[in-house]
Amino acid sequence: MSLQFYNGTNFWKSPSGYKPGEQVTNTQVTEVEQLLGISLPRKYVELMQEQNGGELAYRYVLFEDGDAAVVPYFHELEIDRGVGLSLIFVEECGLPDHLVLLTGDFHSWIALDYRNGRSEPAVLYITEDESGNGLWQEHIIAENFNQFLGRLFQK
Question: Contact, 110 vs 95, CB < 8 A?
């Protein structure tokens, strides 16, 4: 089996079972960034302006150790839905502060990590600890969003 890595085109799956949000404007991006107190990666914003959330055509991500995880979709980039709710979900789920949640299901998340004053966030895969103690395990996928994109693949 040969893996086909994302090469900068055809990021979004079409048609998508996950309905994208409304077209993202620069004003909306600024509002979300102000709400979250961060600057989003430029390439992430460009992808979200192309289509505001939905299923990814390259839906698997490869870790440094050769393991992989599924990234089925990205949430919408909106102030009252999707990424804009990161602060609420971080608090409700007991996740570390300064994370921006790109996708997740309350059991696992893909997040931008702005801890330690990072201006260019790392990309994390966060999963529930198997012990059931309410803790989370963190796995660095990539040191930045562009590196993350280069690790996305399809079968």
Answer: no
